[in-house]
Every structure is written in structure tokens, then in C-alpha cells.
UniProtKB/TrEMBL annotation:
Pfam family for this entry, one: Aminotran_3
InterPro entries from the UniProt entry: Aminotrans_3, Aminotrans_3_PPA_site, PyrdxlP-dep_Trfase, PyrdxlP-dep_Trfase_major, PyrdxlP-dep_Trfase_small
SUPFAM superfamilies, sorted: PLP-dependent transferases
Protein's recorded name: alanine--glyoxylate transaminase
Species whose genome carries this gene: Perilla frutescens var. hirtella
EC number of this enzyme: 2.6.1.44
Keyword hit for Calcium: no
């Protein structure tokens, strides 16, 4: 790792100034925490960097480590911290609600829960207005799949290869990347060709991929399906934006086969795409069920399913709720998040800064042969690294080296995609142009060092 150490770099890209000094930290060191983590936490949980960083403070788009060192957080808690770390309005909402009532259960009334449901419904098109709160994205997608099955009487669900929809029994079946799947019973889920403009067999031809879904319904099911579930931009799969025209055509086929259309907005929702509040709107479709989590609470564990009154009816056949879903502290945070996105025009900022950042990343592609593809929208951007542009050979080792060096320079980016060779840039939506420049300059510098 010595070759990539900061000391080796002569003219480091400069981090934009930021007027905040975190209070001194006196807790355990990174090494002590790592030792405990290795002993007491599941070995299934990976960590970034050969020397993992101990983050002790967050402010806006920055994180601070145990030594007070500042990092631009361009991963945003995996596309979660949309308003910026510890946004005062969100913190205040959480503290105020915590002091009033932490938990009572959905069996009693509480305005924090209903107010947030109303506000969330107001962000939705058509008659998507019935909200069910969950604790995570996985749980939201489990519920969406169950609702579609109950509503239609069919068990068959179509999802996309390369999708990530969660890691419980049903959603792991819908997830379609072998590295995220255990030996689950893959009951009733069919995986369609991924409409991936970069790696997909039909390039950017959305109609051809949509025809595959039509065939899948014809040849892989009874002709009657429960539904179709997809992200608008695949996140874990490496920021893959679905080929243009794909969703309208597929929604059409699914509805003709009696199914419901489920939009998984866990990553692409809450203004992240910049042009729209929800990712599905970028393809001009209106789903029957929308699932969400991550950005909904700026990091507070919360998820939701929003559907129409007609579809929601299916759950009235039994009692169906959970202990923590709709916890008033979480919903107070959610309401504050919607307020911040609106007041601070974070969607407009995601569009402006995201477009600028994408332009600069595309220019970087002209300079560095290792960049195979730059893609995404708003502040959900991907940079795929390849060792051979024609063969699209994944640059797995190189991406780790670039990532390590960027961290040494103070920039944190995510990494993903099926081959683990895609940078995932999903920062808080409050980053500015100077941050974008800093990120690209750091990536440029690191790539030049390869
Ligand atoms: N759906 C998508 C698109 C996701 O990216 C994720 C998580 O990364 C999930 C669902 C699962 O959400 P959670 O990790 O909150 O269970």
C-alpha cells in the first residue's frame, strides 16, 4: 500500500474549505474497534479499505474520522444520507419526538405517523396514497411481492437479472446476482434479461429487452402473473440505468397479463435522480406499488410501501402490521427529510451538481483508458472500470487501488456492480460544484498513479 500513500503524491487535489471543527474524540481507536468487530460481528459483513476508517462525526457532505480528518462522503451511507449528515432539522425532529414518545405501537393513534403518511402520499402520482411503514427496504419489497400475489392470485413475479431487492427469503429470490444469494428456494420468480445499455445483449434498445419479458410471460408462466418488480436505476448492480422506453413497454405487457407493477425506489427515490422525485418518473410510468427506504429517513431505519386503496384492500383479510414499522421517531425524521428536500431544493441541486459531475467524469473517460463507462442521473452516478474497453474486462484490482488512494486524499466513493468494478457515487444531495471538482480531481490523480 506504500506506493499509494499520500506522501507519495506531490500536488494533491485540494479539498474545498469547510467551516466546522468536530469535537475531539476520545473513544476506542480504529484498531481496537476492528479487533472487536472481527471477534463479535458476523464475518459476512465486509468493510472498505485495507485499513478501515473509524468515522466518529458527520456534518453535511462530510465525515470525520477519529483524528478529526475530513472526508467527502460520496457514498452517502449507501445512497441514504440525502439531506447531509446530522442535518439540524432532522436531528431536532428526532430529538423532539424522542423526548415526547419513543414508541407506543400502531395500535394507538399518533400524529407523527399519520402526518408523515399524508406527506409521503402527496409526493406520489395518481391514487398511490395508502402507506404501510416497514423497517427496511427488504421488508418493503417482501410486502410488495406478497400484496401483488394476493391481489392477482398468481405467484409469478418477474424481476431483472442484476437486480438487488433485499436479502430475506422472498426478496433474495428476486435479487439476481449470485454473490448476494444463498441457497434460497427461488419460488415463483423469473429473471428477465437486464436492459443494461453497456453490458446488455441488446445495447440501448429498450423495446427488444421488453419483448423478452413478453416471451417470459408466454413461455415461463401460465400467462397470468402477479407482477414485475424493478429499480429504475440499479444501485447495488452498479448504477445501471434501464434502457430508454423499457419500463412503459414492460408495464404494458405485465398489465395485460393481469400483474401489478412494483417500483423499487429504495435507492433512486427521494430526489436522487435530480430531474424527478422518483426514479420511475424518469421513464414516465406510474406503478401500482412503490417501495422505499434509505433516503426516506436520512439514515434512520425506516421503509415504506405505498399503493392504491384498491390494492391495499388485500391486506384487510388478516391483521398485518409489525412492531417497529411506523415508529413515531422514524416517521418524525421522515417528515423532516421531506421538508429539507423541499426547502433546500435538493432535487434541483442534485440535477445541477449531478449533471456537472457527470460531464466532468465523461471528460475523465476521454483521458483514462481504464474508464469503460460513465452513467446514471443526478447524484446516482456510476463509473465502470475495465482493463480492456473492447472486451469490457472488469478492472477489479485497479478499482481497489484507486479507491484506496482516493480515500487517502479524503474522498470516499462506493464500489459495486456484479464484477465489483463500478464506482458508485451517491453522495448527500447537498454537495456543491467544488466538491464535484475535488472528487473528479482525486479520481484523476489516483488513476494517473495506476
Ligand atoms: N432495494 C434496493 C434497490 C436496494 O438497493 C436495497 C439495499 O441496498 C434494498 C432493496 C434492501 O434494502 P435494505 O438493505 O434496507 O433491506
Amino acid at each position: 500500500a506504500g506506493a499509494w500513500a499520500v506522501a507519495d503524491v506531490t500536488e494533491l487535489p485540494k479539498m474545498p474549505p469547510f467551516d466546522y471543527t468536530p469535537p475531539p474524540y476520545s473513544g476506542p481507536t480504529a484498531a481496537e474497534i476492528l479487533a472487536k468487530r472481527k471477534e463479535f460481528l458476523s464475518p459476512s459483513m465486509p468493510y472498505f479499505y485495507s485499513k478501515p476508517v473509524n468515522m466518529v462525526h458527520g456534518k453535511k457532505q462530510y465525515l470525520f474520522d477519529e483524528n478529526g480528518r475530513r472526508y467527502l462522503d460520496a457514498f452517502g451511507g449507501i445512497a441514504t444520507v440525502c439531506c447531509g449528515h446530522c442535518h439540524p432539522d432532522v436531528v431536532k425532529a428526532i430529538v423532539d419526538q424522542t423526548n415526547k414518545l419513543q414508541h407506543s405501537t400502531i395500535l394507538y393513534l399518533n400524529h407523527s405517523i399519520s402526518d408523515f403518511a399524508e406527506a409521503l402520499a402527496s409526493k406520489m402520482p395518481a391514487d398511490l396514497k395508502v402507506v404501510f411503514f416497514t423497517n427496511s427496504g427488504t421488508e418493503a419489497n417482501e410486502l410488495a411481492m406478497m400484496m401483488a400475489r394476493l391481489y392477482t392470485g398468481s405467484h409469478d413475479i418477474v424481476s431483472l437479472r442484476n437486480a438487488y431487492h433485499g436479502n430475506a427469503a422472498g426478496t433474495m429470490g428476486a435479487t439476481a446476482q449470485s454473490n448476494w444469494k444463498f441457497n434460497v428456494v427461488q419460488s415463483g420468480v423469473h429473471h428477465a434479461l437486464n436492459p443494461d445499455p453497456y453490458r446488455g445483449v441488446f445495447g440501448s434498445d429498450g423495446q427488444k429487452y421488453a419483448k423478452d419479458v413478453e416471451d417470459l410471460i408466454k413461455f415461463g408462466t401460465s400467462g397470468h402473473v402477479a407482477g414485475f418488480m424493478s429499480e429504475a436505476i440499479q444501485g447495488v448492480g452498479g448504477i445501471v440505468e434501464l434502457a430508454p422506453g423499457y419500463l412503459p413497454a414492460v408495464y404494458d405487457s405485465i398489465r395485460k397479463a393481469g400483474g401489478l407493477c412494483i417500483a423499487d425506489e429504495v435507492q433512486s427515490g427521494f430526489a436522487r435522480t435530480g430531474t424527478h422525485f422518483w426514479g420511475f418518473q424518469t421513464q414516465g410510468v406510474v406503478p401500482d406499488i412503490v417501495t422505499m427506504a434509505k433516503g426516506i429517513g436520512n439514515g434512520i431505519p425506516l421503509g415504506a410501501v405505498v399503493t392504491t386503496p384498491k390494492v391495499a384492500e388485500v391486506l384487510t383479510r388478516r391483521s398485518y402490521f409489525n412492531t417497529f414499522g411506523g415508529n413515531p421517531v422514524c416517521t418524525a425524521a421522515g417528515l423532516a427529510v421531506l421538508g429539507v428536500i423541499e426547502r433546500e431544493n435538493l432535487q434541483g441541486n442534485a440535477h445541477a451538481v449531478g449533471s456537472y459531475l457527470k460531464e466532468r467524469l465523461n471528460a475523465l473517460k476521454d483521458k483514462h483508458e481504464i474508464i469503460g463507462d460513465v452513467r446514471g442521473r443526478g447524484l446516482m452516478l456510476g463509473v465502470e472500470l475495465v482493463t480492456d474497453r473492447n472486451l469490457k474486462t472488469p478492472a477489479n484490482i485497479e478499482i481497489i487501488r484507486v479507491m484506496e488512494l482516493m480515500k487517502d486524499m479524503g474522498v470516499l466513493v462506493g464500489k459495486g456492480g456484479f464484477y465489483g468494478n463500478v464506482f458508485r457515487i451517491t453522495p448527500p444531495l447537498c454537495i456543491n460544484k467544488d466538491d464535484a471538482d475535488f472528487l473528479v480531481d482525486a479520481m484523476d490523480y489516483a488513476m494517473a498513479k495506476l
